[in-house]
Each structure stands twice: as structure tokens, then as C-alpha cells.
Amino acid sequence: MGTLDRNVGMKDVEESCTDSTNKLDAGALFVLKSRGSWIHCGYHLTTAIVATALLSLPFAFASLGWAAGVVCLILETVVSFYSYNLISHVLEHHAQIGHRQLRFRDMANDILGSGWGRYYVGPIQFAVCFGTVIGSILLAGQSLKAIYLIAYPDGTIKLYVFIIIFGAFSLVLAQMPSFHSLRHVNLVSVVLCLAYSLCATVGSIYAGHSDKALPRDYSILGSSTQRTFGVFNAISIIAATFGNGIVPEIQATALAPVTGKMFKGLGLCYAIVAVTYFSVAISGYWAFGNQSKSSIISNFVVDGDNLAPMWLIYLSNIFPLLQLFAIATVYLQPTNDLWNAYQWMQPRVSSQPATSFHGFCCGRQQLPRQLQLQPCSLSSETSMQS
User: Fold this and answer.
1) Is residue 314 classed exposed, middle or buried when 0-12, 13-18 and 19+ CB atoms within 10 A define those classes?
2) 309 in helix, strand or coil?
3) Long-range pairs for 191-194: beta carbons < 8 A, 24 or more residues apart
4) Are 233 and 45 in contact (CB under 8 A)?
5) Which of 30, 132, 343, 385 would you call most buried, defined as having the most Cβ atoms within 10 angstroms of its Cβ?
6) Is residue 84 part of a domain?
């Protein structure tokens, strides 16, 4: 009898989940397909968190010093892991009672009340994701130009040309049909973040032992006011490197039942965080002290002299550039979902079943994907030309 009741209960939950899924709009049905495993969640989380911003950690340490820098980094690691794990537990709870939430705005509507998702959480998430896409395009254009200037120091090609090039390639990746379809792209992204973190660490150690290295000074520069603002700036930099505004969307890619999958994915992600963040922060600050720049790779060249081998400098610029393709595509997924569903105007319910190929190929689904990155590229080019 106990087994029978349990089976009946599980059947009711599955039917409830099915009913909830059938009520989703076309954006969620096609962008947020739930087919992945915990390791795929780990790939997505790592791409969303472990990004090129970690190369600025030595710069943050320069305003904090050794003790405060290490303590802040450890605290942010613990706090962010706890926060993301807490969100995943809330999502798991709602999935177990038959009301699986796939997006941040769904959580806001259920927890805070109707309207909070559409008018408060949704716009904030959209701004964060869309801004990340634009920032990735800008940073990639700068990386491309840096590589170009290393090869051709007297080159005259303008920055906006490199931004256009990156935007054109990103338009291709933007056609990936769903978040789950990015799992292989994000696996490559994981390898790339490990690769450029290794390059940054090795390059810092090499530069630190170079005869051309500047004298190391770990004192905190500036007046008391400058130091105070420097501390706040450093804390914000460290906090930003752990930012992730798409945790529910990532968990939505996991195949039901979702219990425990996100915790394993977070474990994989934060194992990579521990390896990359601490190695880059400690080695970079050790090598350059309070002269650490906003990107530690910039410290490898001082007054035209290379403090690291040329091939290592090339790789240190190429690997982050390649990962930016994955980052931009990942943060496009919530905005694709939003555009596809027309969430701002009114909730739309897909007239096609979840497995319908026609539903995905309709103009309302494809047109936003085709046009999504064009305003991003245009905004980036305009801001850089000003």
C-alpha cells in the first residue's frame, strides 16, 4: 500500500508538472528545454560565473592588501555558493510539489506576488543580461585589437571594425535553438577559462622572476580618502566576478527530477572557481603588487618590453577572446526567451505543442534571434567611437 500510494503521488506530481509546462509561453518551451544532466548545469554555471573578469582580481588585491584581499575572496566564494545553492533548493522544492519554476521572474511572481516578475525582477534581469552581452562584445573587440597591435604595432584599423567582426561571429552562435544546445559550447568555455587562468598564472610567475620586472611593492597607495574608495571598488570587483543572473534558467535545463543536480553542478563550478580565482589573484598580486592593472595580462608588457614569452602573451589574449563568444551566447538566452514570449506586452501561450518543430521555426521565434545582436553591436560601436 505504501508503494502504491507513493507511485500515485509521484504520478500526480508528474501530471501537475506537465500541466504547468503546457501553460508556458513559447519562449520557455523552446529556449529552456529541460534535457540536461548535472554536469551540463556545471558547464553552464562555470561559463556564467568564471569569466574574464577574474583577470582583474590582482587589481582588486592592490587596494586591499594580502590579508584583506584573501579574506574577501574567501568570503565571497562562501557567500555566493550558499546563495546560489539556496536558490536551487527553492527551485527544487517547487519542482517537487509540481510547480517547477524556470525563470527568475516566475520565482518573483510566486514568492513576491503577481506583477513583481514582469515589472521589477524581469527588467533588472534583462538589463543585466543585455548589458553583459554588450560588455562581452566591447571586451572582445578590445582583445581583438590588442592581438592585432601585438602583431602589427603600427596598425591603423579602428576598434569598431573588430567589434563588428566579433558581432558577426556572435550572430552565428545566437542561432543555437535552446540553452541546452549550448552544453558543448560551454564545455569548451570551461576548458578555455582553465587555459587562460593557467596562462595568467604562469605568465605572472615568469614575469615576477624576470630581470625586467619592476620592484614589488605591496603597500596601498593614495590618501586616506582614495584608500577608502579603493576598498569599496575592490570589494565590488570581487563581488562582480561571482555574479550570475541566470541561476533559475540554468537549473531549468536539467531533466526532471532535478533534486541534487544543481548542487553537483555548483560543486563542479566552484571547484573551477577555487583553482582559477585564487591562482590568478595570488600569483598576479605577488608578481606586480600595487602596480597590478585592471587586467593582469596588461602587466606582461611594460614600456614595450615583454616580461613573458610572446607566445604566452598571444595565448593569454586569444583564450579569453574565444570564451567571450560563449559568455555572450549564454546571457542571450534569457533575453531570447523574453523577446520570444513578448512578456512585456502580455503573456503568450504557445499554440503549438512543446515538441512541434513548426512552433520553433515560426517568425515570432526566429526574428528576435536574427535581430538580437544587431542593436548590441550598434550600441557597442557607438559608445567606442564617442
Assistant:
1) middle
2) coil
3) 192/319, 192/320, 192/322, 192/323, 192/326, 193/46, 193/47, 193/50, 193/51, 193/54, 193/272, 193/276, 193/319, 193/323, 194/272, 194/275, 194/276
4) no
5) 30
6) yes
Whether 352 is in a domain gets the answer: no
**4 lies in a domain?**
no
Residue 81: φ, ψ to 5°: -60, -45
For 226, the grid coordinates are 582614495
The residue type found at 335 is T
pTM of the model: 0.82
Instruction: Give per-residue pLDDT as tens, 11-24.
Output: 433 444 444 444 55
Nearest-angstrom CA–CA distance, 363 and 352: 13
**CATH number for position 68:** 1.10.4160.10
Q: What is the identity of the amino acid at 166?
A: F
Task: Look at residue 18 and tell me if it is in a domain.
Answer: no
Query: Quick one: average pLDDT of 82-93?
Result: 92
Q: Are strands 305-306 and 301-302 parallel, antiparallel or unpaired?
A: antiparallel
Q: What's the full length of the chain, in residues? A: 386
The secondary structure of 70-106 as a DSSP string is: HHHHHHHHHHHHHHHHHHHHHHHHHHHTT----SHHH
Number of domains in the chain: 1
Amino acid, single-letter form, for residue 386: S
